[in-house]
Amino acid sequence: MTVTEELPIRDELRGKSPYGAPQLDVPVRLNTNENPYPLPEPLVQRIGERVTEAARTLNRYPDRDAVELRSELACYLRRMTGHAVTEAHVWAANGSNEVLQQLLQTFGGPGRTALGFEPSYSMHGLLARGTGTAWLSGPRNDDFTIDVAAAVRTIEAHRPDVVFVCSPNNPTGTAVEAETVVALHEAAQRARPEHGALVVVDEAYGEFSHRPSLLPLLEGRPTLVVSRTMSKAFGAAGLRLGYLAADPAVVEAVQLVRLPYHLSAVTQATALAALEYTDTLLGYVEQLKSERDRIVAELRDAGCEVTASDANFVQFGRFDGPGGAHAVWEALLAHGVLVRDNGVPGRLRVTAGTPEENDAFLDAVRAVMKEIAQ
Ligand code: PMP
């Protein structure tokens, strides 16, 4: 059998591991920031109708520019942010991962550099690697906020072509102030006076935040992009639908790299059906926000150090004993609860699930804390 290392793969991919959280079959799975609520039955029926309709013309390629879907996404963004967004400002792809990849294919690439502030969403760096973009890891404060002065210095020293700002940040849950994004955006433009640099605000968890979207910052900033997804708030991770909002010039630019007909007719029909149920789905978001706040409070009561969260997950610790956070991850798994070890020293991340799942998680944490104390 041939092993990957024997193949003529690109040098920078040698010895690397693919992205992937363990998909283990355990009673309580709180490790991938999914929405625990299945889509409501009337929406499932509506998807059936819309997909049946789409199936009648599957002999044809889909709408290459997904105009109806982009227009409905723009309508949703207008409603959420009050900002004047049209379909010309919106682009959609198979998950926000594909959106981010297309941005790097367009604005990054060989000879170019992307900067992120870690710990953050590991795919930013992996997508940079996959597109031949050099990756630079910028600093954070001890409380996981971005150290603006240090970040500006990093931008001035390395003049990145693309800067990622994740808000709320995965895995810490930390939201980013609008002033921080403005300061980083200004520094990035100053550092690259010829054409400027692209600043991507990843708002995959935006709907769970106490703070408003940073989308209004797009006004007058053609090199700022806000990326979002239907995987979390819309409870549709299996759908694979992400989108961005930006100046129409950015939307035209990413079309230079997108595969023709990248968004299937089935995907477009399903996403349009889900958008018809926005109100119902955002109702689940409210429940998840209050469960998130309960998890934070109960973890603190249990003696954990908890990072304030604006997302549908919570980072907790500190587990600095023998085996570190990974030993606690294993102990929770032994109690039937799967959380995420993102490699942040002494910390783990738990996704807010149903009240029952969260109860099971909190019971397991209390039991494990007792075990550790012994
Ligand atoms: N951004 C962040 C911060 C994420 O955590 C995720 C998924 N875990 C994504 C983007 C990608 O999500 P999707 O491709 O499902 O839209």
Briefly say what this structure is.
The protein is an alpha/beta fold and 374 residues long. It has helices at 41-55, 67-81, 95-107, 122-130, 148-158, 178-191, 248-254, 265-276, 278-301, 324-334, 355-373; strands spanning 28-29, 90-93, 113-117, 134-138, 162-166, 198-202, 224-229, 242-246, 305-306, 313-317, 337-338, 348-351. The protein has 2 domains: 19-39 and 279-373, Aspartate Aminotransferase, domain 1, CATH 3.90.1150.10; 41-276, Aspartate Aminotransferase, domain 2 (3-Layer(aba) Sandwich).
What are the main properties of this structure?
374 residues, alpha/beta, Aspartate Aminotransferase, domain 1, Aspartate Aminotransferase, domain 2, 2 domains, three-stranded antiparallel beta sheet, 11 helices, globular, binds 4'-deoxy-4'-aminopyridoxal-5'-phosphate
Overview of the molecule:
The protein has 374 residues and is an alpha/beta fold. The protein folds into two domains: 19-39 and 279-373, Alpha-Beta Complex (Aspartate Aminotransferase, domain 1); 41-276, Type I PLP-dependent aspartate aminotransferase-like (Major domain) (Aspartate Aminotransferase, domain 2, 3-Layer(aba) Sandwich). Helices cover 40% and strands 13% of the residues. It has eleven helices and twelve strands. The chain has helices at residues 41-55, 67-81, 95-107, 122-130, 148-158, 178-191, 248-254, 265-276, 278-301, 324-334, 355-373, and strands at 28-29, 90-93, 113-117, 134-138, 162-166, 198-202, 224-229, 242-246, 305-306, 313-317, 337-338, 348-351. A seven-stranded mixed β-sheet has the order 2-8-7-6-5-3-4, sandwiched between helices. It has a three-stranded antiparallel β-sheet with strand order 9-10-12. Strand 9 and strand 10 (313-317) form a beta hairpin. Helix 2 (67-81) packs parallel to helix 8 (265-276). It is globular and about 60 Å long. 44% of the residues are buried. Bound molecules: 4'-deoxy-4'-aminopyridoxal-5'-phosphate. 4'-deoxy-4'-aminopyridoxal-5'-phosphate (PMP) binds at residues 33, 95-97, 121, 166, 170, 202, 204, 229, 231, 237, 242.
